[in-house]
Amino acid sequence: EALARWRNPVLGLVPPDKFIRAAERAGLIQNLTGILFRKGLAALGRWTPDTSISFNLSARDLADRAFIFSLVAQVYRFGIAPCRIEFEITETAVMTDIETSRELLADLASAGFRIALDDFGSGYSSFEYLDELPLDKVKLDKSFARKISRNATLREIVSGIIDLCRKLGLRCVVEGVETEEELTILRQLNAEIIQGYLFGKPMTAEDATARIHEQEFRRLRA
Questions:
Q1: pLDDT of 75-127, one tens digit each?
Q2: Residue whose C-alpha is closest to residue 145's, from 193, 95, 100, 101
Q3: Which helix (H) or strand (E) holds 220?
Q4: What is the distance, to the nearest Å, from the Cα of residue 62 to the centroid of all Cα atoms in its chain?
Q5: Residues catalogued as catalytic
Q6: Can you say whether the dihedral through the CA atoms of 42, 43, 46, 48 is positive or negative?
Q7: CB distance 24 to 58 below 8 Å
Q8: Helix, strand, coil proportions of the chain in percent (round to 5)?
Q9: Which helix or strand (DSSP H or E) is residue 85 part of?
C-alpha cells in the first residue's frame, strides 16, 4: 500500500492526515496524488511481477474523470499490467455522488484495475456500497481490530462481515492489527487478510524492495 509521508526540514515529520487535508483545502490534492502515484509506479516497476500496489484516491480525485484517466495513462506508459494496481476509495469519497463514482469505478474495473473499499465500518457505513460498486476487496477500519480483544459484540460483527464478503466473492482485509492477541482472534474468525504494524511499519520504497527480494529468495529456496 502506497502511503504518503512528509518530513519537513522545519516542521519535522508532519502527520499525513494533516498535510493531506491541507492539500485538499488548498485544491492541491491532485498535484500530490500525481507525484505519489508516479513514485508508486516507479517502485512497482522494480518489484517482482506478482507484486501489486494499492493506492488511495480522494473525493476530489474521483470527481475528476479526466484526472483519473491521466493516472491510467501513466500505468500504460510504465508498461505495468492494470491488474497490479488496486485503487482504494472510501465511503466518504463516493457518497457525494454515488452514480458518478460507480460509473467511473466500473470503467476502471473493466480496464483491469482492482477496486477496494477502504475504512469500511467508519462514518456512515452502508452495505449498499457492496452491491452498487464494482469492488474486489473490502478493508475493515482499524477501529475494529483495536477493540476486538475486549468486545464480544464487535467480534460477532467482524465475523459476520468476513462471512458476508466471502459469500459475495469479495476479499476482506482487517486493518490496524498490532498485537498477537488481535491476530489470534482474527485467525479464529477466519480472517482472510490481516494488515497492521504487527507485520510491518511504513517503510521507504528501497526498504520495501529489499523485503520483497528477500521474500522471493526464501520462496525459491523453500
A1: 999 999 999 999 999 888 887 788 888 999 999 999 999 999 998 987 665 78
A2: 193
A3: helix 205-221
A4: 15
A5: 175
A6: negative
A7: yes
A8: 55, 15, 30
A9: strand 85-90
